[in-house]
Amino acid sequence: KVGPVSLLKPGQSGFAAALEQTDVLVVRLGVPVKEKILSKAKNLKVIAINTTGLNHIDLDETVRRGIAVISLRGHTAFLEKIHSTPELTWGLLLALVRKIPWAFESIKRGVWDRSSFVGHELYGKTLGIIGLGRIGKIVAAYGRVFGMKVIACDPYVSAGLMKRRGVEKTNLPRLLKKADIVNLHVLHTPKVEKLLEEKHFRMMKPNALFINTARGELTNEVGLLKALKEKWIAGAALDVIRNENQKGGHPKKNPLANYAHTHDNLLIVPHIGGAAVEAWQVTEEYLAELVVKHFRNGSKR
Q1: What pLDDT sits at residue 93?
Q2: N or C: which terminal CB in the chain sees fewer CB atoms within 10 Å?
């Protein structure tokens, strides 16, 4: 039996009142569940979120209050069916390497200038993947289809398993020095905050491209900006930046977003990796099943 259901957004009329009666809070990535929300949700027993990353949840407070957090983290068999983020990753890569967004912008201005948008082929290039988990494995397969050599670093994946997937295991410094494309697919935790610092971007080839569809907090954005300005690398495409929030004011304060206004070697999109109709439908159904199982197993909280 399901009780009353409220479909509301933070700030919407009735949201605060609904929170006071809420037992189960189902949220997407764009809604940070921090002190402001948790302080009003006095009866909250479960938070269900359709992501693997949990940096937008105040986990210390949920533990203190005994609130269960149900996410997609660890549900590998289910997640391997979801290809929205790997596909977006490859879309960003193609857009960057072939300068597609800027070529289209020129057309909208009435300019037909083929010579200004000469790109590069991916065939024969080296794809470096940092983190060969669920998304990294799919992206590696795309790379092989495009005729690329694929190398990866991941302390949790053996060289033998990588070899069976057609991937060469290496360490981070060598990957940065050898790869023409560097893709970041690491789960964000406090341990890997700013995994890539300025020194890491200095190691990369001058013609290398950097793609991040994981979390903005995994990179030192000042270092990345310097790498772009000083031409240590040729370009970057990002689905994520630091301090994302639903209201959307954060890009105005972000130096990378400001840089992208006037330069054609940086492409940023608003964390749309998982924003596909098919992905949302199956993940929300799956989350609902997990919540039901949680209560059927006798958990009151």
Answers
A1: 98
A2: N
Rg (CA), the chain: 21
Q: Six-digit token pair at 128? A: 């470096």
Tens digits of per-residue pLDDT, 68-116?
Answer: 999 998 898 898 899 999 999 999 999 999 999 999 999 999 999 999 9
For 119, the token pair is 């790109």
- 231's torsion region: left (phi>0), alpha (psi -120 to 50) or beta? left
- 192 exposed, middle or buried (CB, 10 Å; 0-12, 13-18, 19+)? middle
Q: Tokens 């009866």 — which residue?
A: 43
Are 201 and 182 a contacting pair, CB within 8 Å?
Answer: no
Q: What is the pTM of this model?
A: 0.86
Write out the two tokens for 220. 């030192």
What are the tens digits of pLDDT across the range 242-261?
Answer: 988 777 788 888 999 999 99
For 288, the token pair is 């609902």
Q: Which two tokens stand for residue 233?
A: 């690398």
Cβ pair 72, 47 in contact under 8 A? no
Phi, psi of 224 (to 5 degrees): -65, -40
Q: How far apart are CA 93 and CA 114, in angstroms?
A: 20
Here the contacts of 41-48 (C-beta below 8 Å, separation 24 or greater) are: 44/19, 45/300, 45/301, 46/70, 46/291, 46/294, 46/301, 48/24, 48/287, 48/288, 48/290, 48/291
Instruction: Give the pLDDT score at 300.
Output: 53
The residues annotated with a catalytic role in the active site are 215, 244, 271
